[in-house]
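name: query_chain
kind: protein
chains: 1
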Amino acid sequence: MTPGPAAMRMESDGLGEHAVPAVAYWGIHTARAVANFPLLGQPVSPTLVAAMATVKLACARTNHELGFLDDAAAGAIVQACRELIAGDLAGEIVVDALQGGAGTSLNMNVNEVLANRADELLGGARGGYTRISPLDHVNLHQSTNDVFPTALKVAAITLLRRLEKAIAGLQSAFQDNEKKFAGVVKIGRTQLQDACPMSLGAEFSAWAEALSRDRWRVFKCEERLRVVNLGGTAIGTGLTAPRDYIFRVVDRLREETGFGLARAENLVDATQNADAFVEVSGILKAHAVNLFKISSDLRLLASGPRTGFGELKLPAVQAGSSIMPGKVNPVICEAVGQAAMLAIGNDAIVTLAAQSGQLELNAFLPLLAHALLQSLSVLDAACTIFRTRCVTGIEADPEACAAHVAHSWATVAALLPSLGYERAAEVAKAAQATGRSVVDLVIEGGLLDGETVRRLLSADAMTGLGWRG
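structure:
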């Protein structure tokens, strides 16, 4: 019979005794961590939890194959791992995302949950540890120092693959708009001043191309995370682990994840240095920079709509003001920009945490893990809402674009090959002085005929990569 929620059990460790809720799958080490680290008030990333369980599963399989776990113990631990991976025991991982000890608290939380669940599967009671011990069985031939970084790499690869798909979808949405708006001529702008005419499709093509680079970089940087230190135990020397286990455990993890993982040739290096995470975070920062710039550009081009540029119409997704009726704001672009800011800030955190390692270990990996995985998750979500709630629904205002072209003297730049610089400068000066359009002044002055002007200012000419005779 399962105890009531108010019932407690007593567990002991090297520091003494501590009360634990009788219904909890976690135990005394977790209880101490919960009391010691009430910091963020945020749980560990579910992806990292699943990755930890996957690592434990690979370790259990290896220990079973080598005869260090019997069939019953290994079977129960493996089943418990699969339940945690599936999320069935997710509520039992209760330690704070930010914690001292290089991730030991998370490792022990996972060890205790898996041990208690495995013991329960074998007929034991929670907290009894009659058949399965958190340390002697679940953590067999492991250390936090090889399990945590390995799990972090598995979690990061998982989220990188999701992010790559999200970026690909967003890139495709911009490419669709590139084709959709290929025939819309507008004024380009440099330094927020009128510049050469261009097509709206060309503007979307530039955003799509930036996202294409992001997609490729994110896809390639998975390679930086495939080398793991599992089997290195405490400091990378493999102390307390059998050689056969060290040479086999990463193979089992590769089978469980489907990722191209490999054991580091220098396990000491892989245990103490976190520069691979910094490299990946830098790639995420580059993507965040592009997301912010693109979302900012869309806000600007949709500004107004009556008193701004008003060349784009963004989808209206919610009312924009509690005091101004009818106002609709570019909230999706603003949200995407904030997600990008968060990722850029997290990159600084990853950098600081990685450089703070000392000698054989980095004690700041929990902070690094939280920042890196948060960036991966928030950028994935940002790309998804950007695509589904903004980019796919964007409409152009061809009339506003045409009015800006007609009103701007900067269109004279497109007539330079036919007029020459001096004459074009005179036209531009007259347009500024009179407020009349460049087209009218050129045609009325007999400098060019209407058909030639229309050809030179056509969408094809704007994107023709140079003029053709």
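note: The mean pLDDT is 92.
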